[in-house]
Design a protein that fits this description.
Layout lengths: L5 E5 L10 H9 L4 E4 L6 H15 L3 E6 L1 H9 L6 E7 L10 H7 L9 E5 L5 E5 L4 H5 L5 H10 L3 E2 H5 L14 E6 L7 H11 L3 E5 L6 H4 L1 H15 L1
Parallel strand pairs: 1-2, 1-3, 3-4, 4-8, 8-9
Antiparallel strand pairs: 5-6, 6-7
């Protein structure tokens, strides 16, 4: 591939684009074109449409990177998007058609996320969900310095519960037709490592990096390892 790829990073639930700061700094220092695009966290369908527009705005080939729920979003956004050449899943969901993020979370034992989530009614029968700010550091970012985890708790974006319960729309998931890479921590309390391993193996991950004891916020606590995997993916696609 002669044209250089741009890395497009998509954050997940209970996070926002600044969660990619360390990864972006590493990539930019290596001369890699990379951006973090906002994720509205309303539904897989609409969030994927927004990411697809971000991909189109780049005007060239793209490597999509998703964290957590952002994995479901990039899986959908890549369908029919010729500019997308590969997918990197960072402690992320890689759903099959009809699967939901919530269903995949509970498919293997170990997640304690449900005990920490608080609902904010939206008045239309759905709710916005946040992680209790006092519980967030331990649940979401146990290996991140406490002060930083507390800031992340205070700046987290709520996700609409419908998004976590929406069946993956596309009949053929993008990871079936595109190369994929996975990185996650064995200390993830949101998505059990066993579930992440299952999704990586099912997708035929070209390289899977398991970081011992790393939390769900693996891109914050281990930005260099995440950036290394992304750079490796770019080299493969070059």
């Amino acid at each position: 591939m002669s044209e250089s790829l741009t890395v497009v990073l998509v954050h997940g639930a209970f996070a926002e684009s600044s969660s990619w700061t360390g990864v972006l700094a590493n990539l930019h220092a290596r001369g890699v074109a990379a951006i973090a695009t906002p994720n509205q966290l309303r539904s897989v369908t609409t969030d994927a449409d927004n990411v697809r527009r971000a991909v189109e705005s780049v005007g060239g080939p793209v490597l999509l990177v998703g964290h957590s729920y952002g994995g479901a979003v990039i899986t959908e956004a890549a369908v029919g998007a010729d500019a997308v050449k590969g997918l990197v899943y960072v402690a992320a969901f890689a759903p099959e058609h009809g699967e939901t993020a919530l269903g995949l979370t509970g498919q293997f034992p170990g997640s304690t996320l449900g005990e920490t989530v608080r609902a904010i009614p939206l008045g239309d029968g759905t709710n916005d969900l946040i992680v209790d700010r006092e519980l967030f550091p331990n649940q979401f970012a146990g290996d991140v310095p406490l002060a930083d985890a507390q800031i992340a708790a205070a700046t987290q974006r709520a996700i609409r519960d419908f998004a976590l319960n929406e069946p993956q729309p596309a009949e053929t998931s993008a990871w079936k037709t595109l190369p994929s890479w996975f990185v996650y921590g064995t200390g993830d309390k949101n998505i059990p490592a066993e579930g992440l391993r299952f999704m990586a193996e099912r997708a035929g991950s070209l390289k899977t990096v398991e970081i011992p004891d790393a939390s769900h916020s693996v891109m914050v606590s281990h930005p260099d390892a995440v950036a290394d995997l992304i750079v490796g993916a770019l080299a493969y696609l070059a």
